[in-house]
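Consider today's protein:

***
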Amino acid sequence: MGITRGSEWRKWDLHVHTPKTLCSDYGGDTEEVWERYFTDLERLAKDKNIKVFGINDYLFIDGYKKVLEYKNSGGLKSVDLILPVIEFRLKEFVGSRELGRLNYHILFADESVLKVDLIESHFLSGLRAKANLDATTPDYRSWGGVITRDSLIDLGKHIIDNTPEDKRGAMSPLDVGFNNLNFELTKIEDLLGEGAEPNTFLKGKYFKAIGKAEWEDFRWDSSPLEKKTVANRAHFIFSASPSVEKANKGKESLKTQGVNDRLLHCSDSHGFPADENNTKPKELGHCFTWIKAEPTFEGLKQIIYEPHERVRIQIAEPESEKLDNLMIREVSFQSADNKFTPEIIRFNKNLNVIIGGKSSGKSILLYKIAKTLNAEVLLNNADENLLKNNILKYKDTDDNKFKDLYDLSEEDSTFNFKVKLFSGSEQFIIDRPSQSSILPSIKYIPQNHLSNLVDKSRKSGNTLKKLIRDLILEEPDFRKKYNDFVDNAIRNDRQREQDVDYYFSLKETIKKKEEELLTRGAIKALEEGITSNRDKLKQLSASFTSEESQEYNRLNERMNLLKIEESKINSDFDKIKNFNDEVKRFLGEFVNRKRILSDSLEVDAIKTTFLPKYNFIEDALRDVNDIENEIRKSEEGNFIQENIFKINLLRIKQEQIDIENKLKPFIEKFANQKQIESIQKNISEDQKKLSEIQQFRKEIDDSLANLKVQKQKIFDEFEKNFELYTKILEELEPRISSIENEDDKIDIIGSIKYNFPKFREMIESIINQKKFNNEDCKYLYQYEKDNNVKSALSEIDFNSIKNDLKNLFEKIENSPTILKGNNTERDACKKVLTDYFFDHWDVKSDDDDIHKMSTGKASFVLLKLIIKLSKDDGPILIDQPEDNLDNRSVSKELVEYLKLRKRERQIILVTHNPNIVVNADAENVIVANQNGQNDTDSESPYKFDYINGALEDSFNNEGCKDLLKSMGVRQHIAEIVEGGMEAFKKREEKYGF
């Protein structure tokens, strides 16, 4: 039959009359008319893609024989198939208002299946009729015989002669005879061998069809039994509606009435079109039906079994929304040593299945496609060696299931492999990795890969959730949301670590200050010393008048306050200087990062838009440098420039000089001036010390308050991390809602989990368990180590986690001796506050949790998720998806799912299951064979060989020694796939044909 890629969409018109037909409008049965007729058929096939015609001459087959002769002589090259059609009216009618008759059609197989002479001898020769036009003899038959053109003319004359002259029309005897001829349905069925006597010559080589328009005219209130029976006993319903819309309404009407709705839109053409671009009913090319099948009689049979998948009545080609640049058209091996056939292996746009015996090259074909296109192996980052790794263990065994596959995967360097897309793009296996894939959106699921994912997930709990999450995130907008969430969580982690660092730095500072405070003396002793010295001065200044004593005491008090103020100013200077140095370092890092970013950006528009927003950092750094210049001191400790510190210290110094001058007259009155000066100095120094101690104490108290705030901040930041998880689940919910479908019965449930086992493992690595009481973190320690997966997936109570972490944090602070190894309090607390939360994804199907399903069912649910969640429209390559599934799951769920999803994307899979091949109605079947394994005398020079075709490709060529070419695809399925013939029979039995 030539090049094939299995069942493809083509236009079929199965009701086309010829110039030889009765009641023709073509213009006569002349050579000129026939030449135009053939030209129009070729035009329709070439330009309009109508590839199959049913040739109809009512009761005769002469027109079909003439068309067949013309094609066999080299004409009608664009026409793939012509079928002979016989049409007649039935005697039965069921209440038609106009007493019309039902048009009945028999579509016979083409000449390659059923020779013309067999149609004539086994059917047409049996068409007989009888009539009684003699009123005087009721039991007498005035006319009868086999139906031929001559007998019809004779019948017409007989009718005309027995019709009153005023009632005779102008029709010819042939037309009169034809218009008055009707047949009983049971007689037709008897001729076909459906009655008591079989007809093995015609069995399985014809289809029956009725005209919808005449059938609709029959009233339901007359004989609904006969009305439904005649429709349901037909294979097809013929329609010649004026438009596609009316034809589809007619199809829906049949469904509504509960009868056979396998409707085919056919032209019922009786003449040439007046306008080829604007045809009218009954003209050539006005109607057609899209049928997805090989253009053969067997191809037509397939629409009986899969009518809704294989038939469309519409103008545009069905399923044309699939993009050519996302589908594989063909592949080929290019081997120098004849290991692989160089023949092109072609693919269909829908479901392609690869079948064959053991070690026949099925999996290697799928693998080479995946490798050439750099297909994504789920969860393995397109690991080229995945298949090789899976089969290594079989290399030295007697099991050849994988050994040959391993050997072939080792020989990539010995042959080339080419993949070509429907768009025309090509790629060779040796192009990689220097060339990116021409088809990046392709997924490859190796044999047992899904079941391995399920088993691995049940041990670790991680693999499955990552797969589901990755599929959810194939939508770019949601992937960006998730990436932003991860970035924010990482920033929070870093910030929390910095907060912990600051917390313990603050604790260290407080500790040092408290230690230093101990060296500065006791406040009570200083206060008592000051009081005692003041009493001594009071006794020594007895000679002062009351006014002098007050002034003297005031000046001394002021002098002491100035010394305290001077000390505070110097202390403030040191603090600001240290803070300024830290700010300068911090801003300097940002400036450097901005410069690096500026150097890395290539688009000027981004630079001019983005970078100016961060100029404030450089402005801030300049301000900091200005502050530094203002507070810088010389080596002697003097300020270099005028500033607020210098101004205040100069003011204090000047006021101290003034006070000293004012005190001199008072001191001179003392009898023992040196003693007075010594006492005054002691009072001043003690007051300064007391002030510093009080300031120090205040700083410690402020730091302690800050420490409390800082601890709260640490746990607030920890809670913010948890809130990020809550937020991302909410942001991903629209994506999940958009992909959950009642037909799939799959629910995806996102939740926040905490890795309790990982936390416990961390605790045991930093804390001496002999010194550790589990009650300090009872909630976090409630899970046993030997139940890791269950523990990790358990529901969580965030507040309980937070409270336990606080307790543990304080335990480490207060009892650092519980730590083991070189762990410091700071490091231990950082580890305790590690983010062990994670987003977890559960899957339920029919309320059954995927973790509780059988491996096979869970694998199937995964497969549905991969196809459903994936935003890619490219091919999906699957090696034996039926593995681990029971027969019911395959025949019901997997088959129906493949039938549904193949409409959306190209599927290529390896299988041994007949239900997938037959009942999923694979459009293209690729048969793989290793010569010498299943055939010992093969003439093929290639070790590994492939052919492809449709389910309807059926033949036997017993003389051919090339196993693949000795039979059709259907025979290969029956021979290779266990239960293949039974699958075909069950499908036929399902429809009762």
Observations:
- The chain has five domains: 9-127+183-312, 129-182, 324-442+872-982, 482-712, 734-842.
- The CA atoms of residues 304 and 716 lie 68 Å apart.
- Residues 324-442+872-982 form a domain with the Rossmann fold fold (CATH 3.40.50.300).
